[in-house]
Amino acid sequence: SNVLGISDINSDFNCLIIDGFERESGSWRGSGNSFIIKYGNALGAKSISFESIKNYTLMDSLTSFSAYDFIFWILGDESSADETFSTYEQSLVKEYLENGGKFFVSGSQIGWDLVNNGSDEDKDFYNNYLKASFVSDNSSANLANGNTNGVLPYVSLKFGQVYDEDYPDIIEPFGGSNTCMIYSTGTVAGISYEGVFGTSSIYSKLIYLGFPPETTANTPQFNYMISLTIDFFNSPVSKVDDLNLEITGFELEQNYPNPFNPTTKIRFVIPSGVEGLSTLKIYDPIGREISTLLNNQISPGNYEVEFDASGLPSGVYFYKLNVSGENPENNFSKTKKMILIR
Fold first, then answer.
1. What pTM, to 2 d.p., does this model score?
2. Residue 114 in contact with residue 219, Cβ under 8 Å?
3. C-alpha Rg value of the chain to the nearest Å
4. CA 91 to CA 113: how far, in whole Å?
5. How much is the pLDDT for 325?
6. Residue 256 DSSP code
7. Which run of H or of E encompasses 233?
8. Which regions of the chain are under pLDDT 50?
9. CB-CB contact of 303 with 267 (8 Å)
């Protein structure tokens, strides 16, 4: 039977793992799996508490998605015969993402099911809530690497080792998402997104992989991917404007309040047409790095991040925004001073 579990970690963050993998006649053959253990161990290493359920219990469950900071939904090679996301399941995911959810989903047949064989509603869900465009049913690859400018840099996952995965989906970013993983053949294996969903104004985050990462035998790399995912989900950066606004230039504003104790907010602007790795770091007066508030590729917009200096002594500190991309004309770097007073 399927292995399910719950952690005994006392954590500020709680995660729900949903095992949606019911297919018994595909690459994985059998009436049960133990993939929850892999995710549970990786989350435990980040001190994240978790619970797990099978997806078919959602109809009768008292589980409320709003109770969870993160949701991990694993689908393996689940396909059209068993449905990757039913209409009811789609409604749960939509509501979660429209209310500030942090959602990780993976599976090799999601695009094939929802787009190639799906209804108009399925396609809309795939485009506007999984933030992806379906390209092809077979990447002809069993290796995916993190995009160095994405949220999973330097991750390298050789998948299809626990069971043969012969049809991983090729996908493309859609609706403001970014590439986070690339197959060894050069096509897109995964996307990330941070922003709003539907008509909501609440900021949410998403990672969607077109292959099942739990099929790798490289546990350290799998754990590293989960660690970076949690870091991305926990990033304090939030968008404070409409993506449709025309933003013409970089800007790093003075923190407010300043002086501060112990928290302050920093606003910055990434202009339209700029793609690159953005970092926002805090330094002490002699140049030692104190904290990294941002380290990933983000879409153009007006952003705000909160810095908590609890535990730091009074004094002068510096914050630096750096943006670097393939086009040197779009590079930007600026540093400003702030004062912590106890």
1. 0.79
2. no
3. 21
4. 17
5. 72
6. B
7. helix 219-234
8. 243
9. yes
